Amino acid sequence: MMVTCSKKKKLKKGRKSNFDEIPQDLVMEIIWRLPVKSVARFRLVSKSWARIISSRYFIKSFPAGSCSSQPRLLVCFTSPVSDLSSQYCYFFSWSSSSTTFLSRVKCPTGNPKFYNYHHYANGLIRLGYDKRKLICNPSTGKSITLPRARDRVSRSFFGYDPVNDHHKILLMTRNLPNNGHESPFYEYQVLTLGAEQSSWRMIECNIPHRFCSNSHVCIDGAVYYVVKTGADWSQWSLMKFDLRHVKPS
Length: 249
Description:
Blueprint (H helix, E strand, L loop, with lengths): L1 H17 L5 H9 L3 H4 L7 H8 L1 H10 L7 E6 L9 E7 L4 E8 L12 E3 L2 E6 L2 E5 L6 E3 L7 E9 L4 E10 L9 E8 L8 E3 L6 E10 L2 E8 L5 E8 L4 E2 L1
Antiparallel strand pairs: 1-2, 2-3, 4-5, 5-6, 6-7, 8-9, 9-10, 10-11, 12-13, 13-14, 14-15
């Protein structure tokens, strides 16, 4: 009996390691055929499967592998404010025939009616309240908290650089002079997700402009947003920020 038990244990160990011996292309094909709600659970199969499912390539390619299904809409809900220390966003995959729960993400605390920082870029969503923001993957439920910038009035814009395969955030900060007579001046910072050092870095901008709101759109590696320019800041303009070269134009 003891020998039989030990063999069973060895078989279990062998079966577990066999998943890592499946070619990666075949693993991708298997995962692409899974229902959306099952993908996150299959990260537990093995370390290699978890690495594949969490990779940027898979996140970008998974919708293409699911092209046989109807187009789906991702919906986010925030729980009631019964306890401000535990707010969550719930993500669902929706179609005309079914609604499937994807994941739940714990959000920074705060009043949901001020929760207006929702932006999407290439599979990731930025959520935030006040100066507390995070980036999450709605398919897997994983998230990271962004480092805080300087404690001043600011606006931030979220986008994706397809050339370097990086998500980036542009932050515009308005600084008020100490004497109260001079006009406020603006600083510009960029945060690159996935970089070795995830910290804000200052950049130069040769086009003086003032932000108007958080509204923006990312198209082909550039973030577009409405600003005010001119000597008296009365001219409305559309600003383009090139994420690859980290340069406004």
